[in-house]
């Protein structure tokens, strides 16, 4: 078996086996930093910009400039290099880095040793980012559930436990649905990272596919459960198509947010996601769909004895009951909270990992 090798100083870099050797001894380098070294060495003598590192090494995953600085610092430590008097990696202030050591290219046999792959690190990132997105979605669901719970209680909270029960039940339902939706969207987006694709279209597609699958499953199980228990089910409730829109909105918002996160605080980086998610949620209702608030309202209409009312929400917009304006606004808020929560959690997890 043959493999391209790059030789510089006492080091040999083998791309196919993903190993770095120093005087024939394997040097431990993390997967992401190994990719950065390959990028530098294969472009020896040429400037490698910060954007090129972000595109080719981090592959669209949101990181700050500090992550790149830490990467270069670690590589210099591995190579025994000095930033003040570099032999391998030269800093080009405000632009990027240049590999200045002479590099020899040859094709030689690959040692028959165990191959170090990137899959361990990639899968660790997959679970970390997907899990973070689930947590962020759950927190968004908690806020949304409390809003619907207090708005939907048909009596003041103080006199008894009836209204309190409504708040607790609606909050629990909203959190559960948000966790399921976030799991589909977040792990769908994280799965794209396993294929090393950071394009905006791929990130959107990952979120859309995850939203489609979870939305379809939730709707199918929900309708079956209502028919089994109540003998009837809502004519309209959130499902696969709504999941596609929200998932794609989160994907696009995350892609934009990861670029903003390089230059500004996290609270500003999530603004594109919040805006796109809000527009997506409102657009769903305007197109005739339903998000969670509309689905709960449809369910309450099936039960004449239900104490659940959303009249208080409609009153803010001069409507009698939960009218079209109320549904558009609340759906926009749902989309905004969900997209912002998932995006913020993923960006924060990525920043902490420095990956």
General description of the model:
By secondary structure, the protein is an alpha+beta fold. It has two domains: 2-109, Winged helix-like DNA-binding domain superfamily/Winged helix DNA-binding domain (Arc Repressor Mutant, subunit A), CATH 1.10.10.10; 121-353, no CATH class. 62% of the residues lie in helices and 10% in strands. The chain is built from twelve helices and eight strands. It has helices at residues 31-42, 50-56, 65-79, 119-152, 162-194, 200-230, 240-260, 266-269, 271-286, 292-302, 311-316, 324-353; strands at residues 2-8, 11-14, 19-22, 25-27, 47-49, 89-92, 96-99, 104-109. The strands form two sheets. A five-stranded antiparallel sheet has the order 4-3-2-1-8, with helices on one face. The longest helix has 34 residues, at 119-152. The chain starts with a strand and ends with a helix. 44% of the residues are buried.
Question: What's the average pLDDT?
Answer: 82
Task: Please tell me what the overall shape is.
Answer: elongated
Distance between the termini: 31 Å
The radius of gyration computed from the alpha-carbon positions, rounded to a whole number of angstroms, is 26 Å
How do the strands line up in the largest sheet?
4-3-2-1-8
- Helix-and-strand structural type: alpha+beta
Strand content: 5-15%
> Biggest sheet: strands, sense, closure?
5 strands, antiparallel
List unreliable stretches of 5+ residues: 109-121, 155-161
Secondary-structure element string: EEEEHEHHEEEHHHHHHHHH
Number of strands: 8
Number of helices: 12
In total, how many domains does the architecture comprise? 2
State the helical fraction.
55-70%
């Amino acid at each position: 078996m043959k493999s391209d090798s790059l030789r510089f100083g006492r080091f040999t870099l083998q791309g196919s086996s993903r190993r770095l050797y120093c005087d024939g001894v394997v040097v431990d380098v993390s997967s992401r930093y190994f990719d950065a070294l390959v990028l530098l060495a294969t472009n020896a003598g040429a400037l490698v910009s910060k954007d090129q590192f972000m595109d080719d090494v981090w592959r669209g995953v949101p990181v700050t400039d500090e992550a790149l600085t830490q990467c270069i610092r670690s590589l210099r430590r591995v190579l025994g290099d000095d930033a003040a008097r570099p032999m391998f990696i030269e800093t080009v202030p405000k632009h990027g880095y240049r590999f200045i050591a002479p590099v020899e290219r040859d094709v030689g046999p690959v040692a028959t040793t165990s191959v170090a792959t990137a899959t361990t690190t990639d899968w660790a990132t997959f679970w970390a980012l997907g899990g973070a997105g689930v947590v962020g979605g759950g927190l968004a669901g908690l806020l949304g559930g409390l809003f619907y719970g207090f708005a939907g209680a048909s009596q003041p909270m103080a006199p008894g436990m009836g209204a309190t029960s409504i708040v607790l039940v609606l909050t629990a339902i909203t959190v559960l649905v948000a966790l399921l939706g976030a799991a589909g969207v977040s792990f769908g987006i994280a799965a794209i990272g396993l294929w090393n694709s950071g394009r905006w279209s791929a990130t959107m597609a990952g979120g859309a596919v995850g939203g489609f699958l979870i939305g379809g499953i939730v709707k199918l199980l929900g309708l079956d459960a209502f028919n089994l228990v109540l003998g009837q089910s809502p004519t309209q409730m959130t499902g696969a198509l709504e999941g596609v829109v929200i998932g794609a909105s989160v994907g696009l918002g995350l892609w934009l947010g990861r670029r903003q996160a390089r230059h500004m605080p996290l609270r500003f980086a999530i603004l594109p996601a919040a805006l796109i998610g809000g527009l997506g949620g409102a657009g769903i209702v305007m197109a005739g769909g339903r998000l969670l608030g509309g689905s709960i309202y449809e369910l309450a209409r099936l039960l004449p004895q239900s104490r659940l009312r959303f009249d208080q929400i409609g009153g803010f917009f001069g409507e009698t009951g939960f009218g079209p304006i109320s549904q558009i606004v609340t759906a926009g808020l749902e989309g905004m909270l969900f997209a912002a929560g998932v995006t913020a959690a993923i960006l924060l997890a990525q920043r902490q990992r420095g990956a």
